Amino acid sequence: MIQRRTVLKSGAALTGALGGAGLLVPAVSDAAPSSTAATTVTDLDPTTIPKFQQAMPVPQVVQPAWSSTTTSCYPMTIEEVDAQVIPGYTTRVYGFNGRWPGPVIKETAGRRALVRQYNLLNVPTSIHLHGAHVPESSDGGPMDLIESGGAKTYTYPNSQPHANLWFHDHAHHQESETVYRGLTGFYLLTDSVEQQLNLPSGAYDVPIAIRDARFDSNGQFIYQMGDLRQRTVVLANGKAWPYFNVAARKYRFRLYNTANLRFFTLKLSDGSAFQQIGSDGGLLEKPIEVTSVALSPGERADVVIDFSKYPAGTQLTLLNTATMVAEDPVALIGNVLQFRVGNPVSDTSTVPATLRTLPPLGTPTVSREFVLSMDATNTMGSALINGKAYDHNRIDTEIAYGATEIWSVRNANLRMPHNFHMHLVQFRVVERNGQPVTSGPESGLKDTVAIAPGETVKVQATFTGYEGTYVYHCHMFDHAAMGMMANLRVSKSTISGSTATRRTGGRSLR
Length: 510
Fold this sequence. Notes:
Elements lengths: L3 H5 L6 E4 L5 E4 L38 E2 L3 E13 L7 E6 L7 E5 L3 E8 L7 E4 L20 E6 L6 E7 L5 H6 L3 E7 L1 H4 L9 E9 L19 E4 L2 E2 L2 E6 L1 E8 L6 E5 L5 E6 L2 E9 L2 E3 L4 E7 L8 E6 L9 H4 L1 E10 L21 E9 L8 E3 L11 E4 L3 E8 L6 E5 L5 E5 L2 E2 L11 E4 L4 E7 L5 E6 L3 H5 L3 E7 L8 E4 L7
Parallel strand pairs: 4-7, 6-11, 12-16, 15-23, 24-27, 24-35, 26-34
Antiparallel strand pairs: 1-2, 3-4, 4-5, 7-9, 8-10, 10-11, 12-13, 13-14, 16-21, 17-20, 17-22, 18-19, 18-21, 22-23, 24-25, 27-32, 28-31, 28-33, 29-30, 29-32, 33-34
């Protein structure tokens, strides 16, 4: 069995102290590239990077190597490549199939996908299909590693409804840096429910990954855990502050927050309304008219923007109104990308009043409590769930196969936000700070939920389909890498309690 220390040899060192802005800022590992060392690097002045001068690319769709009536096979390489992220510089990035931004896999519910990942990096990886309902062997767990030079085939049954999924590295202590350097991709799962709708499609259905970054004077990524205040260059589909040409018609944008730490609240510069039609687990039951969408790391929002009301030549900026620390430079992190409106084109797409019907919640039989915290007094920079840092060999939560449970998740920190992601299942947010959630953007299927300082969120999930060990964790990658993660085990041999209340975490049940 691979031990935790094996990964630590090539992962980021978990040392540091609480920064002045309330964020843990551990020192980087000796194994990290020299460009990441805070004492030897010179930052590129982000104010010198021109805005809205690069076209935002549309991620390329991967074609399967072969397909049958039931299965498609996708060979993929994990490798270093060169990309133009900021004008005038070539940046070394990590990518799938040599692509930056990450590629798109499109699949249909009920059809199996085999994805063969070849790791050509010099660090181990483990590829997780975020939001997917998959067997443990293909979940991409934090210690289920593909060593450098190795390969692994992941089997995705796609036995779930349509969803806006994505894949990324999950190797423990490595994921924070490898994802930061680019190991992400899109996975769009569709089904007959979605296909029968006349939503914008084809060239008018565009996935957009939004994140932040920091660069040295040579245009290379600077990676240092917890340095949110210095990650002030905003990327959309791998380009710094790009523009995107749109026709004067409706577009569907699938917005992904792939940042390590940054939260985004996105709105149009003219303040106009648009429609949110979906979230992490696919379409909402009904479209919602909104003027902004909020995304913590890992969350997704599916929106439709109608540009037909704008005259040709209009320029609109997609703004970010979320600030996380007092030092956030709004002129930088407040801008994301620019839409440039062209001429009208034919548009027969519609957004119907009803999008889907979600299954009933069911009756929960178990209630559990979880507390997320960052230990500011611990010189190891611990990030904890129920007072415990992640231990691969410890089962924190035993769950009966088929059980429906309510998890109450509290952020014990008073200055620092967290969020919460659960593997294996999509869940429903049923309560936030004591108030029921029955409508709005959080009323659909979710796998990641934001939890502001001091907040408590309750989610409900049914654990079925597969037995095995999976993880739950904060999806702020730096926090997960520092230990804010735990194991759950689903088993038919586990007896479900009747309306039991359990504070789970930390006890070994093996």
